[in-house]
Amino acid sequence: MSEEVKEILPEELEKDIENGSKYTVIDVREDEEVATGMVPGAKHIALQTIPDRLNELPKDNEYVMVCRSGRRSHNACMFLNERGYKTVNLKGGMLEWTGEKVF
């Protein structure tokens, strides 16, 4: 994965949320995936719809992008970063958030 994308560990994000998060969390998974659970307070914008929904993402916010394992959210970070957004990728995605290991 590219070095140009910052990452946050699930534990760090969880602590940040508990303390009144400075981040807006965006879950880029598909509808059926988010139905199984999301990071508390996350907004669902499926990856393929991001280009059409940029108007919902103010550039003065800082975003944590989330997917299942971290790959799609990494791509979302790269796309948004190229357009002047401030993003951070959730390392390991929901697999790490829920305590499962990514292999």
From TrEMBL:
What sequence ranges are listed for the domain Rhodanese?
A: 19-102
Extract the Gene3D superfamilies matched here.
Answer: Rhodanese-like domain (3.40.250.10)
Q: What Pfam families does the entry give? A: Rhodanese
Q: Which PROSITE patterns match?
A: RHODANESE_3
InterPro entries linked:
GlpE_sulfurtransferase, Rhodanese-like_dom, Rhodanese-like_dom_sf
Can you say what this protein is called?
A: Rhodanese-like domain-containing protein
Lineage of origin: Bacteria, Bacillati, Bacillota, Bacilli, Bacillales
